[in-house]
Amino acid sequence: MAQTWKQIVEADPEHSRRYARRWDDMVAEGVDIDGEARLADAMAPRRARILDVGCGQGRMGAYLHERGHRVTGVDLDPYLIERARESCPGATWEVADLADEDWARGPYDLAVSAGNVLAFVDPSDRHAVLTNLAARLATADEGTDGRAGRLVVGFGLDRGWTREEFDRDAERAGLRVQQRWSTWDLLPFGDDSGFMIAVLVV
Fold first, then answer.
1. Residues 127, 155, 60, 7: is their CA dihedral positive or negative?
2. Whose C-alpha in 69, 111, 127, 132 is 20 to 30 A from the C-alpha of 100?
3. Over the stretch 54-111, which tens digit does the pLDDT of each residue have?
4. How many angstroms from the chain centroid is the CA of residue 169?
5. Contacts 24+ apart (CB under 8 A), 69-78
């Protein structure tokens, strides 16, 4: 079973700094790191309220903020939230455990969890996390342009959470899968796909 983020950081206090540095290095090398953000932007109405779930140092949220969206990012890691606040002070960034109830209440037009974030959640907390995310999605009455909110999640299926398990957990949390892809540039999902992007609605 993959380690949770808490376990990784407790075992290696420098992990978060190395993680952030790795993304900095990729940007410096000219690597395209915005695929997830481009998809989120395309899925959202203009000036949407977007929740960046497990936002890290804010790479996706900053991109979306620059395009006029109203972004709130949440992450368990205080160092990464500090980096996000430095890089994009115009967005809202919160230190929060997704399994707790008291954070970034919403409602949101789009919630996006990229970068294997949900795979780092303790299995005992998965139901609470999905339930909390479902509760933050806008209803059609609350949504920008009259649209109900959507949740987009992406993670590797080799990290201890199978597609079947995820679907069952999502259904228990009041969510249903609307679409599914194998990559952030929308290649089809198949039985042999190692990565899953799922779009969920209440």
1. positive
2. 69
3. 999 999 999 999 999 999 999 999 999 999 999 999 999 999 999 999 999 999 999 9
4. 17
5. 69/41, 69/44, 72/104, 72/108, 74/98, 74/103, 74/104, 76/5, 76/6, 77/5, 77/9, 77/16
Q: Which residues pair with 198 in a beta bridge?
A: 153, 180
* Chain mean position to CA 185: 16
Cβ atoms of 39 and 64 closer than 8 Å = no
CB contact set of 35 (below 8 Å; sequence gap of 6+): 184, 185
Residues 6+ apart with CB under 8 A from 65: 71, 88, 90, 91
Q: Which pLDDT value is given to residue 126?
A: 95
Q: Rg of the chain's alpha carbons, rounded to an integer? A: 16
Q: Of 69, 86, 71, nearest to 20 (Cα)? A: 86
